[in-house]
Amino acid sequence: MDQIIHIFKKDVRHHWLEISVAAALLVTFGWLEPLNWNPMTIPSGWERFLEGLVSTLVPLSWLLLVTRVIHGESLVGDEQFWITRPYDWKKLLVAKSLFVVAFIYVPLFILDVYLLKKASLGVFSHADGLTYILGYWTLFIILPAAAIATVTRTVGQFVLVILGILVYAIAIVSAITHVPNLGVSRAESLPTVVAMLLGLATFAVVVVRQFATRMTLQARATLIAGVLAIPLVVAAAPNRILIAHAYPKAASGQQLPVAFTFDPTKPDSDKEFWYKTKKKVGIRVRLLVTGVNRDAFAIVDGTSITIQAPGRPIWKSGWLSGGPNLSWNTPNASTDIAIDDKFFDSMQSTPTQVHMSFAISTFRSIDSQKVSVASGAFSFPGGGRCSLNPVSSSGLWCLFPLARPFVTVRATAGDAGCSSQIGDDAIPAGTVFQETIWNRDEDPAELGISPVIPERVAFSDWDGETNRNRQLMLCPGAALTVTKMEESEHFQSELEIDDVQLIDYKLKVKTFGQNDGAGVEIPR
Amino acid sequence: MNNAIRAEQLTKKYRRVTALNNLDLDVPSGAIYALVGPNGAGKTTAIKILMNIFRATSGRAEVLERDSKRIAADAFTEIGYVSENQKLPEWMRVDAFLAYLRPFYPTWDRELENQLIKKFDLPLDRKLKKLSRGMKMKAALLSSLAYHPKLIVLDEPFSGLDPLVRDELIEGLLERAPETTIFVSSHDLAEIENLASHVGYLEQGRLRFSEEMAALAERFREVEVTLETSSTHPNNWPDSWMNVDSTPAVVRFIESRFDQERTGADIRKLFGAVRDVRFTPMSLRAIFLAMAKTGRASAREGAA
Questions:
Q1: Which of A85, A154, A211 to mutate to test binding with chain B, by most B CBs within 10 Å of its CB?
Q2: CATH says B3-216 is which class?
């Protein structure tokens, strides 16, 4: 223990400047962050720039601290004085870890507690979330930085490695968009967990082995192999099988919570466009949606399309990620498909059969609470504090501890606490407005430095009859119904479309920067 | 007598280059052992394997009766290591450096530390990065002597130092000699000659000899033979003769296994009656140069 403290004290003396800079940045962050909690004080201009700068510099200062403290007893090379002194590698590792705890984890924890208290959010009931924040900073910043620092000699080398990893990450992200069957959310959880565990194991092994043996070439090889393998785990996973497992096909005759039928309405060539993509043609398929329960909603996590015609080659899209959110008041939706241009050219006027598979997740309500809007701040389910939005009277401004709750909030015209509404005549009493606060993952905390999550809850909808956006104004005394949501079912839904000509559904091409006052329709 | 260092068949290969080739080495406890050899002979590699900084490709070594592969934390409380290229924590002042190291060593001797500070005239309030090369070596040596190590390992400690600093370092070492074993590598032969009790000569990764200095000095002689009459000479010189240089009237060579009777008999056998024979003792430097010259000649012949 004596040796640990002794090395720790030496490191504090050596790195007082870096420690001071990191602390000053954290204090600045703690001063600026509360400005984001009130819509009247949200930073703009130079304050916004400063806030963005500080938010970036805080993690960078941690990277620098980790690197400098490890380089203090460099593990690379054979001329360092300390390697022929009575250093116990385990104690050295603990001393460095103690430094990280003392000057990264403890200040971050103190800052988070301070911010939670300042936001009048509970502290002690969120120990798991606060620990989670430290955990993901460890996984995404501290441990990778420590691993890289153990195999580099100088900060310059460290920065070069980080830049190399960034370039690799950018290349992987752009390459991965061409890999089929990726991004279908629920099917990705297993490969993602495996990739994260692989990363964790790689970084931990490199750090411990380097401290124990200082075999730098081996450690570098391990680190490179691990970093290269992490995206490969995700890309090379048997994603089709995982999707089939995560979203089982419905049994014959099974009543599904969501049903699609084909809407043959063609795209409006004056309003609906497709951003030009190399060697691709965009088509839009409209869908009529039925069956979504009033207390539930559904999300299309992925879509797979097969197009064929007798005697012609078959075109398969593979699973494409993402899709529309569907609720009881979403009667229609649409999905855009990028088809290979050569295939489109050969098939465009041929009657074809389109088979669509949708990977769908549904969500159900599990608990409802009545909340009365107060004139000041009031408690909100999920540990939050909300108040009427002082900027826009049509909603709430809420602060949540660590993570947003996954809830729907309903307000009813006539029960909104106001004697009159803006454009009152446009909103008949009894009209229900619903807003969803999303947190599908339901992790104990969201990624970030601050544990206070601001959220704007607005109540508005589109009135198709008057073609106007309606906003519900809230006043003290308004009654809200807050319903906690949870994922309930995952399944595949199939749709067969016969005898369509692709040319009828082709979207007009638009290039980036072309301004014609119209945009791609966002499915609602 | 126990050996402070023992190496058996120690070999280190870097891909195709053999830096150390089956090194067998015994350094008796209490000796001041000088490992000499030209640059690139493998001296630093040998020392770094002994200090467990490098791993040997094959063979084994023991240092203070421990397997060299297990030389780590605790072992270094008994070993002092100073190298010419050692990277010290340059941001520290000399006094902070010594204060930092003290708690690592249960046997650290404050009194000895103060004596050495005075002897080496070290400026305690100066940062290590502000010190001259000689001063840095003094600080490094001081920090490796102050805890009475059983073994002091020095890798080219005198390289590039001015004579005054060298003398101070050697004096400091010699004062500690009675209580420790000193293993020093150098190609600075003049100083080694005054310091070492034993010497080993390493060349191209191979140990050419290893023995006590007195025996070595006894074994090598410069020999000059003046013949009665000018004549041609045979080429089959005895194996122990090195760097033979002959004219019709005079033959000069270095005898590497000198024994007055045996060498005299060899001379008589080859040349018959001679006018004069002179045997001159050699300095370590002269022996080293002769060995190096012979080694290079053999290497050239081997390559040819």
A1: A85
A2: alpha beta
